[in-house]
Structures are given as structure tokens and as C-alpha cells.
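Intended use. Records like the one below are meant for learning the mapping from a protein sequence to its folded structure. Do not use them to infer anything beyond what is encoded.
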Amino acid sequence: MSSKKQITKAQIFSAAEQRAARSERIKVREAEPYGWIAFSESGVEQNYHLFRDPETKRLACTCADFIFRGHADFSYECKHVVATLKFIARQYLADEYDHRVQQARVA
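Structure written out for the chain above:
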């Protein structure tokens, strides 16, 4: 009985929403010499390198999910891409964002 409730509850969310939720458990750091490293959520020593693709100008990931689905659908974002975008946004807000610049553009 409880498994039916869990299945029903899980189906409420889209696949993209489920990936976004799982991305919260992924740790990200900057990589040398460029890009980012997303650590596997399972804790296994499998880490993924993310970088900005110069042709598409979007993040690309070395995980199998992105390789097989991301090239066919340019709007597809694996959980590592979502985690990295959140990392970049948090870093920007903490270090670079200045509300006065935004207000000056609007005015």
C-alpha cells in the first residue's frame, strides 16, 4: 500500500523536476584549468567534468545521461548540469552581484 502512494507521489513531478531535486545532493567545485567538477551523488569515485561548449554556448557534462540525451535535445540538462548552474549562480550572487548595476540598467 505504501509503495502505491510513493509511486503516485513521484509521478506528480516531471523528469526535469526530479533531476533538479537530485541535484541538491551533488557537490560541485571549480576544475583546473577550466570548467567544474560535479561529484557523484552515490559517493563512488565517479566524478564528472563540466565545461562550456564553445559551439552551443551551454554547459556540457561527461556523464552518460548527458552524452546520450543531451546531444539529441539541446534543452536537456542532467542533474550535474543543474547542480553546476546552481553553484555558478550562488557564487555570482555571493561575489559579483551588485543591485546598483541592475538598477542603473533599468533606469
